[in-house]
Amino acid sequence: MKDETMGQEDAAQDAEACAEALESLDRISLDEIAFDDSGVDVQDESEAEAQSDDQDADDVEPAEDEADHEDTECEADDQPESDTSEETILLDSLPAEDSLTRELPGLGSAPAVDETIAMGDIPLPSVPSAREAEVRHRKMSPKRRNLMVAGVVAVALVAGGAGYAAWNGYQQEQAAVLAANAHTMMSVQIGVHAAGLDCSTGSKIPVQVSGQDSDGSSVSETLYVDEHGRGIKLLPGDYTLSIAASPIAADGTIYTVPTTKTQVAVKSDGQDLSAQATFKLKVPSADTVTDDQIDAAAKYAEEGGANSAAAAKMLQQAATARRDAAVNAVSASEAQAARDADARHKATDLYQLDIPVEWYGKVATWQNGNTLCIYLDGDSDTPIVTLVAVREGESFTPDEGDTVLGAANLGNGYTVYASGPVYPYVVPQTINGQTQNPVSTYPMDTAIELVELTTGNRYTYSQIKNVLVGKDGKADAATKLETDYLAQILLPSIKAQD
């Protein structure tokens, strides 16, 4: 029986402690609870005991406040009661200008009572000071203290659980956004350079895309971009890009397709990949474009690069026409070059040579056996250079007024000597009237042309006259200029006859 009685007492104490713990949670803030008993000093214990004795004394003797309260109640009983039939005056019915503070009916001699209800008139729960909280904590039984701590921990756990739930919800929301983006087509831009291409009138550039998207699915498709590299839409993932074929410009231009491949990672919408993927499409010579290149470009234009199959067909025809015109032009040019080469080619019984391209159309020739004279077209009396074949061991003397300008050994026992007037010297001297026995006199336009033919336009006539030759009559610099030029453009072409 003693054990049962003690158990019941413990249970009653526990219940009382729980109630007091809940009540204390309403009064005591978490910051005012101290859990370390070692921090209480002896002075606080003395003050607590003295306070306890004062409270016992208060239980014996009534306080002055209580006595005053009883006197006030007696005075109130002496006041006459208000007439119950008097009409009740509501606050809402009072005029706006009337004050809410008025004299109560029947209490003319009593002081005015303010009927205004203010928040300050409502008693608020008292909050213990830090010292009072410490005293209560010290006097609190261990079991009661443990229950209070358990209550605080429970509140903290509830608050922590709410925070975790909010964070977990945020994480789930972000995961949902990422999952949605993983299944959203992203527009990306690459870099392309194709001179003269306008995709609004020509076809777009076909781009071969292969790789794997964010779902792990394999991708292999052809997408089309304009001249600015825009037009590709893909799911996030890793891809390899390359140019599938040439586009076709409105004028029929076909481009050289780059063979490079570039790997890119698509991550967001509007992503600019031009720094990682840039393709340069060069314009080749139109006559080198093949039928296979045109057919491939037309195929992709029809499949998506052009507005319609009919537009793709027209672009193909433009490309073919442009190529054919270029081929014909090249053929015509080659035929003319062959005719010109034939006209420039000269031959004797011992040697052959080609008239320099710079001279072609401006000179003519006459031939006498193994002697070949090249003269100014339309003026056979103005020779530029005369070629004479001389057997080895024999001497060569140029005509009067001519200078040996160079020689070419044929390797068959003969040497061809080139001789003629040094026009860069003779012409300026003749014009100046300093030459005693001029070969002839020359009009100014003829003089300029002779200087240009014999020097390859390296110097103007004025430079030849005023600088290279000068007024002293020396011909060394002018002679060297002409001989050097002939050694470059004429003498190398002189070969022995087959």
TrEMBL record:
Residues 33-108 are annotated as: Disordered. Keywords: Membrane, Transmembrane, Transmembrane helix. The keyword Transmembrane applies. The chain crosses the membrane at residues 146-167. Residues 33-86 have a biased composition (Acidic residues). This is Tat pathway signal sequence domain protein. It comes from Collinsella aerofaciens.
